[in-house]
Amino acid sequence: MKKQYTYFGYERKDGKVGSRNYVAVLPAVVCVNEVVEAIVAETVGTQGILHHQGCCQTPPDLTRTTECLIKVGENPNVGAILIVSLGCEGVDTDRLEQTLRETGKPVERVNVQELGGTSIAIKEGIDKAQKLVRAISGMQRTEVDISRMVMGIKCGSSDTTSGIASNPVIGYVADKIVDAGGTVMFGETTEFIGAEHILKRRARNEFVASEIDRIVQQMENRAKAIGVDMRKGQPTPGNIKGGLSTIEEKSLGAIVKSGTKPIEGVIEYTDVPKGKGLWIKDSPGREIELLSGMAVGGAQVILFSTGRGAPQGFPVVPVIKICGNPITYGRMNHDMDINAGLITLGERSIEQIGEDTFDLLLRVASGETSKGEAIKYTKSMDFYMLGPVI
Amino acid sequence: MVKAIKINEKDNVATVFSDVHAPEDVEVFDKKGDSSIVHVLDDIPYGHKIALVDITVGQQITKYGEEIGIASKPIAKGRHVHIQNIESIRGRGDWNKDKQAQIIKEMNKH
User: Fold this and answer.
1) Closest by alpha carbon to A251, among A189, A172, A174?
2) Taking burial as the number of CB atoms within 10 A of a residue's CB, which of A213, A231, A255, A322 is the most buried?
């Protein structure tokens, strides 16, 4: 019989399970980030979703921003939401508020222009945020099966150890979660270029294979359209210093983190997985947009592989760092949760470090603080847009 | 002796797991644990690649048993394989259609 794994999470009214219980303070537009920061600084248990969108964008991107904000509010790690509006933003703030109320979570809103300025909005926001914190602070964790977990995957600041040690470790954990009936999401479409033939072999059906081709071509065409060699953008200067020569080499190492299970489908940046199993989210390689995309997709926890030492976290989703380079781990062990560098040294196997990572994943999903959370790396985030600022 | 890993048996490059200073030898391990010695002709930084055989211009560079680019210069066994002597063939907006077709034709010869 298959072993049953459980963790302790917050069961939400909409049936999802959270690993955290935050009040998310959502700016409807970049212009109110300062107001959000001031509210968050004065209120325990809140996290600001600071971003740079919400106005002077094309209509598809404004819709996209609204969708992203809705989905972050719907993320199961969020227990309540305070929306901060300037009053003249392009985002549909009424729809944002209405949709979030339908989750059954407490929702409040402040409007800077109506209230009469930032200082009044900050004061009002702090009062409302404190009320929301008190409203959800009594919630208890319950034991749930791992099949209810939604995990996100990322690799960043990669070097050659990423493809050899830390990404295979994440692949091992991803396989284990899929086998146990859970949901896993990975993305970074730019880093499929040159490795799409391998992913296509794992596609659930022909349609999914054609979708993989479509998103990869779309991403490659963006480089071609502006007449450049992608290098220095992808691979990044850090990747190149770390020994990765071409996007193909980076991609082949990057896709290992998705494990070996069938790929159920491709979802858009604003979507959540349409079922259990392994899903691709069409997204770029940069940390801030990718981690936000995982939160938008409902990730409760994110596994993050690095070689050179990416410190990124996310405001409402714990990020667990798996470092494949033993030198980096030694130097940055306050940022790195797991030393997969032991694999390159021949001291531990992928399976052994994979099991350690899986155990830590269950503990972090149950409330243990990841190192990224402990250093409070929560402000660098943004949503992935398709068009220009206008 | 410095160790290097050849990830797949098809690979014509290996990855070194220490800074290497020419002239010295590295011990290249494969997945089965078999090893061979390669004499290094360049300084090679940690995590970078070394050529395991002589590679001609236009020939594919293979790592993970898959293609990661092509040689833009002749690369002798023991040389540092990196952006100075290998080219990506994907996402090349700086290449025109003729250049792309020529490269692909070259590749198909091998």
Assistant:
1) A189
2) A322
Instruction: Quote the tokens at residue A54.
Output: 């919400």
Q: Do B88 and A246 touch (CB under 8 A)?
A: yes
How big, in percent rounded to 5, are the helix, strand and coil portions of chain B? 10, 40, 50
Interchain contact, A344 vs B92, CB within 8 Å: no
* Closest-CA residue to A151 (of A122, A177, A169, A124): A177
The answer to whether the peptide bond before residue A237 is cis (omega within 30 degrees of 0) is no
Residue contact A194–B94, C-beta within 8 A: no
Backbone angle region of A259, left / alpha / beta, with phi > 0 → left and psi within -120 to 50 → alpha:
left
Cis previous bond, B23, omega within 30: yes
Nearest CA in chain A to B92: A229
CB contact under 8 A, A245 and B93: no
Structure tokens at A305: 């592989």
- DSSP H/E element including A69: helix A59-74
3-state helix, strand, coil in chain A (%, to 5): 45, 20, 40
The nearest alpha carbon in chain A to B70 belongs to: A246
Which chain B residues are within 8 Å of A234, Cβ to Cβ? Answer: 91
pLDDT in tens, A279-329: 999 999 999 999 999 999 999 999 999 999 999 999 999 999 999 999 999
The answer, yes or no, to whether residue B110 has pLDDT greater than 60, is: no
List b or e across A192-219, with b for residues whose CB sees 16 or more CB atoms inside 10 angstroms: bbbbbebbbebbeeeebbebbbebbeeb
To the nearest whole Å, the CA of A72 is away from the closest chain B CA by 32
| pTM: predicted TM-score of the whole model, two decimal places | 0.94
Question: Which of B15, B46, B94 is closest, CB to CB, to A164?
Answer: B15
DSSP structure string for B4-52: EE--STT-SEEEESS-B-SSEEEEEE-TTS-EEEEEE-S-B-TT-EEES
Among B7, B4, B3, residue whose Cα is nearest residue B64: B7
Q: Which of A223, A230, A246 sits opposite B68 (nearest CB)?
A: A246
Closest partner residue to A229 among B7, B64, B93, by Cβ? B93
Q: Could you tell me the pLDDT band of residue B107, with boundaries at 50, 70 and 90?
A: low
Predicted-assembly ipTM surpassing the 0.85 threshold: yes
Contacts of B90 in chain A (CB under 8 A): 193-194, 220, 230, 246-248
pLDDT per residue as tens digits for the range A164-221: 999 999 999 999 999 999 999 999 999 999 999 999 999 999 999 999 999 999 988 8
Across the interface, whether the CB atoms of B17 and A307 are under 8 A apart is answered no
Dihedral, CA atoms, A330, A172, A233, A312, nearest 10 degrees?
-50
**Residue A156 tokens, joined:** 């960043």
**A324 CB near a chain B CB, below 8 Å?**
no
> Could you tell me which chain A residue has the CA closest to the CA of B65?
A252
